[in-house]
Structures are given as C-alpha cells and as structure tokens.
Amino acid sequence: xxxxxxxxxxxLASFRLTxxxxxxxxxxxxxxPFHEIVEEQLPDGSMQTFLKVKGTGLKYxxxxxxxxxxxxxxxxxxxxxxxxxxxxxxxxxxxxILAIAGCAALVEVVVERLS
Length: 115
Fold this sequence. Notes:
Blueprint: H1 4-22, H2 28-31, E1 35-41, E2 47-53, H3 57-67, H4 69-86, H5 88-114
Helix pairs in contact: 1-4, 1-5, 4-5
C-alpha cells in the first residue's frame, strides 16, 4: 500500500510524464512518425490546424495513444508505479524529478492566471 506522500509524488510525476509525451515540443520527435499536422483554410480565410493520425494497424493505434492525454496517462502511471515497485532505486530519482517539474508546471499556471 502506498503512503499518501508516495501517492502524491507518483500523481505529480505521472501528470508531468503524460504532458511531456502528449504535448511538449521537446518530445515531438516521438510523435512525429505517428502524427501529421494538417492546415485547412476556413471560409472566412483563416487557417485552422488539426492533428491527423498516420497509418493503420499498430502505427495508427500508437498514434491514437500519443494523441490522447487520458490514454497516455494510464500507461504513464502504470509505467511509473510498476517501475517504482520493481526497480525503486532506479525509478525514485526519475519520479522525484518529474514530480518536482509537475509542481513547477502547476505553480506556473497559477502565477500566469494571477498576473
């Protein structure tokens, strides 16, 4: 059973890892083989961009997974939790770094909204 502190740390780490995989520019190279950004001109002349998942079969499935925050969140959480249980000495520093970054991201959102 996890303590409240362990749960909080894993929660924050999972939040940050999921955002890193699904949204952050620095990891776009992971998504690039599975996603295409398509631009479409609207009737009013403005441009709209949207994400199109590439391929079929496994490639499409991975593309869908990488475009779904909720789906990736489950796998990120499972990866971190199992890693923490099985290889604690390796995963603990990674989890703490992600948790600290997750806290920083949440604080940044609050500061931006208050500004």
